[in-house]
Amino acid sequence: MPTKTITTHNPSLRMEWERFRSLSIEKYAKLQVDTLKDIIGVDVVVIHDFSGGYFDKSFDFSKVAKHIDVVAYNNYPVWGGQANPIPPYEIACGLDFMRGAKKKNFWITEAIMGAQGHDVIGYLPRPGQAKMWSYQAIARGCNSLMYFRYRGATKGAEQYCYGILDQDNIKRRKFYEVKSFFHEMKSNEAIINSKIDAKIALIYDFESMASFRIQRQSVLMDYKNEVYRLYRPFYENNLVIDVIPSYSEFSEYEILLVPVMIVHKKEVQERMRTFASQGKTVVISFRNGVKDYYNNLELGKFNPINFTDFIGGYVEEIEAFQENQSIELIGLNEFETMKGTATVFRDLIKTTTAKTLFRYNEEFFEELSAITLNEYEGGKVYYIGSGVDENIMDNLANKILKEANIETLKSPKGVEVVKRQVNDSERYFIMNHTSKTQMLQNTKLNPYEAKVVETL
């Protein structure tokens, strides 16, 4: 157990502590599940309601999820002390994460309706907004939803977690908003229980998250932001993305997103090789394959460890950026007219078989690359060597989706569309995340309105 020290702890000891904590929680969860099934019967449905913020937590949600029957989620797009909700793509990523934990539909056991907070209260969802978030949850795989809470408490630590009814017990706007949501969902039962078949997967890695908690390497490093950096541009194309653990099977997808997987795992690498050799696309971001199982560097090997032929190059040098520091990127080949910026960290890549898509505008390292594309056994491997800006990511995502022949749905900024398949017919969930009236082709959406339609 790492105790207080005057200097920095050994990163291997810290990693073993992270694993021990996660395994202890997993074993305790399994003990509870087994006990309940022994007492009540094996047919009982055991759930556990997971909180948000997984990418900042010190245990592996997916390992606990293996032992329960249904993943449940407490979906809070805003909390006490926040002036505004988190962005729509972050809400969506949390929902895709919960669906990905068991690769099946999930429940929401706490959906927000009123303002929330324990000691400090936050943003009040505007009329229609919390209902719209419920639509978003159903669209992305939730098939059972309840609100927290029905009636506000007058005592206890959560007196300021406002619900459908406030403590005055009077039915007004929030009550009728919830009533209308359940009424509208009753006619969409077939959609709610249908399976979502995503063509894109984003894999997260518990040990890599832990490694960055132990050694951030850059003051700007935040694991969840690097997840969102790869997730957001594909979400903006109105696609669902299965967010799954690195040990999960991913052969059924067409595109694989791999953010900052710093701990190299031979088994995962081999499956990525097989994936690419089937003509599919892998997108890897910086600091990939730097550490071994024990959270140590490996002597005598280029980064990414045992993967240099896969990316078509190797990391020649590295640099961490500081607060308010960035570097200009210059596009090459099909991105020749484009410029952008990058921050957080940079791998300076020496290419072997890969072509350079962007380079750093740096007089001392002009021959080293920032973003590369390698053709590997019929597939494509993109390596994004730094924390690049949204415009570059959007253009890369558009190129990747076009190459993979994946259909996208265009919509105004802030309007989310999710296509669901019901037998031989299609339905579209449309959510307006903005405070303005929006038009999606022939469909008018009032501020924060959500609908299910048969055609766009």
UniProtKB/TrEMBL annotation:
One Gene Ontology term from the biological process aspect of the record: carbohydrate metabolic process
Keyword annotations: Glycosidase, Hydrolase, Metal-binding, Zinc
Every Glycoside hydrolase family 42 N-terminal domain range: 2-187
Chain ranges of the Beta-galactosidase trimerisation domain: 198-407
GO molecular function: beta-galactosidase activity; metal ion binding
Reactions catalysed according to its record: Hydrolysis of terminal non-reducing beta-D-galactose residues in beta-D-galactosides
GO CC terms: beta-galactosidase complex
Pfam families linked to this entry: Glyco_hydro_42, Glyco_hydro_42M
InterPro entries, alphabetized: Beta_galactosidase_Trimer, Class_I_gatase-like, GH, Glyco_hydro_42, Glyco_hydro_42_N
EC number(s) reported in the record: 3.2.1.23
The family this protein is said to belong to: Belongs to the glycosyl hydrolase 42 family.
PANTHER family xref list: BETA-GALACTOSIDASE GANA, BETA-GALACTOSIDASE YESZ
UniProt-recorded name of the protein: beta-galactosidase
